[in-house]
Amino acid sequence: MDEEGSPPPPPARRPRGGLSARLLAFNLLLVFIPAAGLLYLGTYEKQLLEAQERSMVQEGRILAAALSEPGALEDEEAPRILARLNQRLESRIRVVDGQGRILADTSRLGPRRERPPAEPGEPGGRGRLLYRVGAAFYAFYHRLLPPGEPALEAREASPSDGRLTGREVDAALSGRYGRTVRPSPAGQRSVTLSIAIPIGRGDASPAGAVVVTSSTWRILQDLYAIRLAIFEVCLASIALAVLLSLLVSKTIARPLQDLRDDAAAILDRRGRLQGSFRRSQRSDEIGELSRALHDLTGRLEAYQRFLESFAAEVSHEFRNPLASIRIAAEMASESQTEEDRRRFLDIAQREVQRMERLLSDLREMTRVDARLESEEQKALSLNALLERVCEGYRLRGSRVVYLFEPPSETITIQASEERMAQVFENLLDNAASFSPENSEVRVRLAREDGAASVRVSDHGPGIPAENMPRIFERFFSWRPDQPDAAQRHTGLGLAIVRTIVEGYGGGVFASNNPEGGATFTVRMPASRTGVFQKSSPRA
User: Less crowded by CB within 10 Å, the N or C end of the chain?
Assistant: First the structure.
């Protein structure tokens, strides 16, 4: 704790990027999933191109196999086979001989049955503003991380002499698989993929080649639609993430900041409680935390008042013996006779002994209050403990009779044996001090609703109704028929009993018996009660 008068340390600076920022980052992380899908489109496009190429290769190989009869490749053979296909293929197929002369071309056989529409200027919604915005972000990403683009050849020129040229044709006529990518005509964004398959007819060199050509326009049209859909999902996810972040910030971050502000303002410069947490009516976890903190500060405030009142009561209890000692010392110093001096010194000595008892009981009470929960606790049989305590009082030769009435079962609690023995000894001392000579002090043990209950009854004068609320207060003692009670009783015995029992979560209560006398009941909670085992009743 800081020294008196020194300023308190400044509150820790709240780091930037708190809960609100982390929640926003978490929500934006959810947006990464559709955004990652948008970035994956490049890989998806590559896979579509590979699938299209495999389909074209399959078409070319089938046609090459059909034309692979031994002998020279006849001029009418290839057109006849292509005509049988009835223009069912999407790709353009051409057959060339060994010198590259075109023997057959599907484009010369008439219109296809299901001719796709010509490529529009802005397919797949490219003309929409939303697509253009997304394309701008996509282009920015490609500028930062440019993907590997396929090398493009020059556009295919229309053969004037009936011969077809190109790298793929040259590769196929030399007996290898040929492939090339060219830009599509008329400024289209798609590219044209061309593959060539050699035609073998038993000769050493290929008799010709099958050239399959197809545009990627259909793939791009699907990609444009997918890009637009993913970008719409991204925008919707971002909007939802922002709304959720604002909502969470209002419902979580702001209440937590209010709790932080309450915590900063709850203590004064000396570390004393000067307020409490506001009790929230929310039904969620933050509301539970707020109510728990409110209850916690309430208990701390009650404990602070207890310490303050305890200090005041201790000061009051010490004031009287100190005053008596001071007066006795003054009178002894002024006395003329040895007898008077001895009488005043005896008074001072009795008051010193009273202060020693007060200090001893106060030390015990504060030790119990501070160390009760940290002391070792074990399974404790109340039957055996009460039997030992009562037997010990019988062996002292007390002026009263102690009777213990055990149940037919063993009642076990989890507690410190020393502390529980202290509880029952204080109750027996209190009962004996009020009981007439040769009267009975009865101790009854029972189990009630799973809890352990111990009743200590006497045949004394009972407790006046006006004193019943104060019977467990510190330093309270009512013994009108005992003139020297103040010298022998400090009024802390029952207060220590209540401190121990309530420290274990139980309760202690006082009541008057109908036939006279008083009964003190100690109840230990069911949470501390152990397994009840049958035992033979005492004879």
Answer: C
And the tokens for 174?
A: 């030399």
**Per residue in 250-259, pLDDT tens?**
777 778 888 8
Token pair for residue 188? Answer: 């289209």
CA proximity to 224, closest of 139, 334, 134:
134
The pair phi, psi for residue 368, each rounded to 5°, is -65, -45
Pairing, β 440-448 against β 401-405: parallel
Give the Å distances, CA to CA, from 536 to 3, 272, 380, 385, 402. Answer: 63, 56, 18, 17, 21
| CA nearest neighbour of 210 among 75, 78, 89 | 78
Q: How far is CA 333 from CA 99, 326, 328, 343, 402, in A?
A: 146, 11, 9, 12, 48
pLDDT above 80 for 192: yes
Measured between alpha carbons, how far is 523 from 382 in angstroms, rounded to an integer?
Answer: 12
Is residue 41 very low, low, confident or very high in pLDDT (cuts 50, 70, 90)?
low
Q: Is the distance from CB of 267 to CB of 304 less than 8 angstroms?
A: no
Tokens of 380: 């404790």
Cα dihedral across residues 65, 66, 69, 75: positive or negative: negative
Q: How far is CA 383 from CA 63, 146, 250, 378, 411, in A?
A: 103, 85, 58, 15, 7
- Mapped onto helix, strand or coil, the DSSP state of residue 25 is helix
Per-residue pLDDT tens over the stretch 208-233: 899 998 887 777 777 777 777 777 77
Q: How far separated are the first and last CA of the chain, in Å rounded?
A: 61
∠ CA 137-143-149, nearest 5°, is: 110
In sequence order, the β-bridge partners of residue 442 are 403, 457
Q: How far apart are CA 459 and CA 518, in angstroms?
A: 7
**What distance in Å separates the CA atoms of residue 507 and residue 331, rounded to the nearest whole number?**
48
Residues in the chain: 539
Cα 498–Cα 499–Cα 503 angle in degrees, nearest 5: 110
In 10 A of CB 319, how many CB atoms?
A: 10
Q: How far apart are CA 311 and CA 40, in angstroms?
A: 74
